[in-house]
Amino acid sequence: MARPPGPALPRSEPKRIVIPQIGVNAPFTDVSLTPSGQLNTPPLTNKNLAGWYKGGASPGERGTSVVVGHVDTKTGAAIFVYLRFLKPGNTVDITRADGITARFKVDSVQAFSKAHFPNARVYADAPTAQLRLITCGGTYNRSTHEYESNVVVFAHLDTSGRS
Description:
Blueprint: E1 14-19, E2 24-31, E3 50-53, E4 63-68, E5 72-73, E6 76-77, E7 91-96, E8 100-113, H1 119-123, E9 129-141, E10 146-162
Parallel strand pairs: 2-3, 4-9
Antiparallel strand pairs: 1-2, 1-7, 3-4, 5-6, 7-8, 8-10, 9-10
């Protein structure tokens, strides 16, 4: 017997992300792909800003919604500095432009080497409303000025309601 597709919402841009377990309460900006096909990040000038990949599903819509944020900037810790500490069952609330708050439940938190990043697993379309939160992690390479890994939170839409 086929499993039902689960809850899903119509398309609506995200406005705010709240993750109480790690102290996140931030607005969104849209991000897109670079000419080489990599995902852009929010500007480094704002440490408390999440980036939503507008080319994918909106949070709560059927499919995979991708949200990125910095772990740090030159001036200190940023929005997703504690992302790696989330645990299965923790919640992520995203308030949308339509006034609905989509609540996601964390399924897993994993770190992947940037050299062997599983694009298909992270970015693949989904038959249900999925969320991916992505930031840098692992060792910071001082010569390339980049972290060598990414931390990815896998979550699914749990509930939704008017804010």
